[in-house]
Specification:
There is one protein chain. The chain has about 200 residues and is mainly alpha-helical. Helix content is about 55%, strand content about 5%. A two-stranded antiparallel ribbon has the order 1-2. The protein is globular, with a radius of gyration of 19 Å.
Length: about 200
């Protein structure tokens, strides 16, 4: 049974337990059943990028639960053709640095992911984007764009506005299980709660 099939409270508790073990310097494996709890020691190693991102999952979940009152989707990327849109967005990504606000970076990668999705994220579309991106932007652009697009397609692209904790770096280096089994299910639940909490009269039937 995948972790994603458990209730949200269980997923959050599991992440909290993992963070406690890390804070205590314990890097073994905790096995929990309905009868017992067992801890197995493993060899000590330095935390990886993925480990560090995992430790911030509670912040990501809390941010995804933030409700928005303006549910206006992000505008389509500028440009007349798909190729021109890719050139404009990749040109913007080339200018990204630490002085660019996080939400602006996420918007660029979301729009790039949206454009690549139109071509099924195929190798040809990725190669075209690579020809425009600077060398130091090419390594991580695809996982970042794809995950940003999947996450905020599920949550609603409007939710990028005001995002502080969910970084492009985090989405790129997050483990597949954290993204698929924890973040995406939480994202879908948060969007449902947000929509259900809106006044009924805003919907135009």
């Amino acid at each position: 049974m995948d972790l994603s099939e458990f209730p949200s409270e269980v997923r959050i508790t599991v992440v909290a337990l993992q963070n406690i073990l890390r804070s205590l310097g314990q890097e073994g494996t905790l096995k929990i059943s309905n009868l017992e709890i067992e801890y197995e020691e493993t060899s000590t190693r330095r935390p990886s990028h993925t480990d560090r991102v995992h430790g911030r999952l509670p912040y990501f979940i809390a941010e995804l639960r933030r409700e928005c009152t303006d549910l206006t989707p992000l505008p389509s990327p500028p440009g007349e053709s798909w190729e021109e849109q890719i050139e404009i967005i990749c040109g913007g990504i080339n200018l990204v640095n630490n002085n660019i606000r996080n939400e602006e970076q996420l918007q660029l990668y979301y729009q790039l992911g949206s454009l690549l999705s139109l071509r099924g994220f195929n190798a040809t579309s990725r190669s075209f984007a690579k020809t425009i991106l600077l060398a130091h932007k090419r390594k991580d652009f695809f996982p970042t764009a794809k995950r940003t697009y999947f996450l905020y397609s599920a949550r609603g692209s409007w939710h990028i506005n005001g995002t502080v904790h969910i970084l492009c770096y985090a989405l790129c280096h997050m483990s597949e299980s954290d993204f698929q089994d924890v973040l995406l299910p939480e994202t879908e639940e948060a969007k449902t709660r947000e929509i259900l909490s809106l006044p009924f009269d805003i919907f135009d039937f």
